[in-house]
Amino acid sequence: MDIPPLIWNYLHTLGISELYAPQVKALREWMPGKNLILAIPTAAGKTLVAELIMVITILNQGNERRGKALYLTPLKALATEKYHSFKDHWVSFGLTITFSTGDFDHIDQALFSHDIIVMTNEKADSVLRTHPDLMQRITCIVVDEIHLLNDETRGVTLELVLTKIRKLTPTVQIIGLSATINNAGELASWLDAILIQDEWRPVKLKEGVFYDHKIAFADGSEKIFTYPIADPMELLLKDTVKGGGQVLAFLSTRRNAMVAAKKFTHVIEPLLSEEIRHHSLQVANDFENLETENSPQAHQLAGLLQFGVAFHHAGLTYAQRTFVENHFRQRNILAIAATPTLAAGINTPARRVIIKGLERFSMAKGNQEIPVIEYKQMAGRAGRPGFDPYGEAVIIARNPTHSDELMEKYVRGTPEDITSKLNNEAELKSHLLGTIASGFVRSWEEVIAFFNLSFFSFQNKMNLKQPTRKKAKITKDESIVSSGEDYSKYVRNYGDVGSYSIQKVVSREKKLEERLHDALSYLISEKMVQEGEGGALEVTLLGQKISQLYIKPESAVEFRATLRVISQRRAMHDIKLTTISFLHATSRFPDSYLPYVAETDKDGLCKFFQDHANEFVFPRKLRPTSSDLEYYFPELKLCAILFRWIRETPEERLASDLNVGSGDIRRFVETAEWLVHAAEVLCPSFHFTKWETGLKRLAIRLKYGCSEELVSLVSIYNIGRVRGRILFKAGYKTPDDVSRANDADLIKLPTFGPEIVTRIKQSLATGIMKIHIPRSESKLQTSNELDSNPRGKKPKKRGGTERALF
Ligand SMILES: Nc1ncnc2c1ncn2[C@@H]1O[C@H](COP(=O)(O)OP(=O)(O)OP(=O)(O)O)[C@@H](O)[C@H]1O
Ligand SMILES: [Mg+2]
Hints:
Blueprint: H1 5-13, H2 21-29, E1 35-39, H3 46-59, E2 69-73, H4 76-90, E3 97-100, E4 116-120, H5 121-130, H6 132-135, E5 140-143, H7 154-168, E6 173-178, H8 184-190, E7 193-197, E8 204-211, E9 214-217, E10 222-224, H9 232-242, E11 247-251, H10 254-268, H11 274-288, H12 296-305, E12 309-312, H13 318-329, E13 335-338, E14 352-356, E15 359-362, E16 366-369, H14 372-379, E17 390-396, H15 400-411, H16 425-437, H17 444-451, H18 455-459, H19 512-525, E18 529-531, E19 537-539, H20 541-549, H21 553-571, H22 579-587, H23 602-611, H24 632-646, H25 651-658, H26 662-682, H27 692-704, H28 721-729, H29 735-740, H30 743-748, H31 754-766, H32 777-786, H33 800-804
Parallel strand pairs: 1-6, 1-7, 2-4, 2-5, 3-4, 5-6, 8-17, 11-13, 11-14, 12-13, 14-17
Antiparallel strand pairs: 8-9, 9-10, 15-16, 18-19
Helix pairs in contact: 5-7, 7-16, 9-10, 11-12, 16-19, 16-20, 20-26, 22-24, 22-26, 23-24, 24-26, 26-27, 27-32
Bound molecules: adenosine-5'-triphosphate (ATP) and magnesium ion (MG).
Adenosine-5'-triphosphate binds next to helix 3.
């Protein structure tokens, strides 16, 4: 294969003098136009192969049309890491790079003017729903961590993204990057791809099990420690740091990670030089200034950073996690105690990875051992090229028998086969709707033909048959709730919902075609799809909206039921409609992301419920001991978190009162904002136009965590809820007030300095705001209808009342 001179030039600039053996093998065997599966160990340099192929395809030398590459990752964090590294590598060579991960129903078409677009799998799925034409411009698609196909819910999305792209553009080149897996051959056959498999790793990784002051390695060798330290993690940490290395420890829960990090400081403190101590203080200080509001967790982490130690888990915000990763890379942090979220694909300079606890808890299955492939991902963070001459991954065993088990199952174990998860009823409805909405299939026969192209069909060696289509019943439109009716029948049918997930155990007995048939009947009966002449399938306006909003069809059905109950209960003067009504209603959507509820939360939640009982659309008799209310408490807790958030409760207090991390709050809020926005867009379809504006403003309040009266102020660039409140208190209540204000007066306000004020004034002068605020005449209606604290009333003193809720 001809490698363009530019590429050699590039490798030279990067300081890469030669390619690794598996890289050479891959580039030799790959041919332009061919698909490739690269299943080689962690750290073996898969990204570089993908980069070179993307660039060769983009430059498309000798041909007129320049190619375009899409790089897919399973995680936002990985997407940003790749985006920055591609930018560093390629911009000076005249290539343009961009990335996109959020906002599912908004696609910026300019994205597709770039040469390389980095995206999450979910974002690619949403682009395929709204703009399949844009996807047709892609000539090369790289799928990082393609073994994600095995994931119970997200695997389905990836599988259908690949199936759709191949159907849309049969000539597109697919480059799949995978960890070592057992059935890579099968995956390659499905994609009609060249398979490159290799066990070679550039940096030697020794894997072993620790028990009683000794690591037993897979190769039979041993390492015995004489330090008089009883705790295995502390002992291994001391040994690594004394030898000049860094440690990444994986623990099964956030709490364990935080406790371990605290213990690590005792080990590391005596080993720090005066100079490093001084530098660490600076790092800790920078961390505190990262976010405008810090949770107790963040304060705790800042305290640890002073000793070169950190914890890392999803309770931290994205910026905080990135901070920790970057400083670990720069060797300012010597040890991290993390949950397994740090595992996939990320480059870390750990000389030693220590793993304690290979179990994971799920509501449905209890404590279960994690798959071998996940262990290999964690182990693979050690010994990365450019950082260390070797790496070690050590699992901590509880006793000699456990040590033998771990050695057999994990260290010497073979990663599992990747199997398609398409036969998952909870996911199919949404994906079938998306497939119909984007015009991929136009009849039942085409549905079957499309799904016959899937990995599921390939792997199960089955040709889906066409069961006779039974006519679906259409849901009647008339109101369905009468006075005194039991609302519980509208309680959702839960699938997999976020952190509080009950994994629906999928019966594999039902055939895929039967599940598709049921899913289609559901979509027709709910008027999301209609069956026309000769069985033609067409998406309705409602179906189109749901598909573009990227919500589950069941969430829309839930919302329609909510609106009907609301109108019935309003007619009977039986409900006080407030923000709480809608926050609770959207918390019940199957798409919502629910918090964990501890027993100790329940009293407070019952009190919160009683204080607002007439505002809930679906009230319940509630007692802390109620055991049949498995989901009601998490929904209520989410509603309480969101309610306090939009009442400007400081993040720190919210986090400590409700035992949630800042990262969790962001996720709850982001999801709620998306679902409230979805509800607003769906209102006209259900003939409820009254609350559209109110919901729009509620979404803005969720985004910025502010009261109704601050909505217009937070629409100004550089103003969030903290500065907004300061302005409001000082008498500047609208953007006009701020425009007219004296610069000198503004500069005197806390958190405002000359630089900020100049930026604020400049952006106001352009008239460009962060968000569009719905017109003012509807504001009154919003306040009256949707807010329990109407405008004009003195806002309740933040503090006493809200704290009393819990
Ligand atoms: N030929 C090479 N010479 C020197 N360094 C290289 C070479 N190829 C890749 N690297 C470096 O090796 C490191 C690991 O590469 P990369 O992240 O692509 O691994 P990977 O195979 O994707 O691993 P994982 O499965 O963990 O994601 C990177 O820092 C990369 O810059
Ligand atoms: Mg990788």
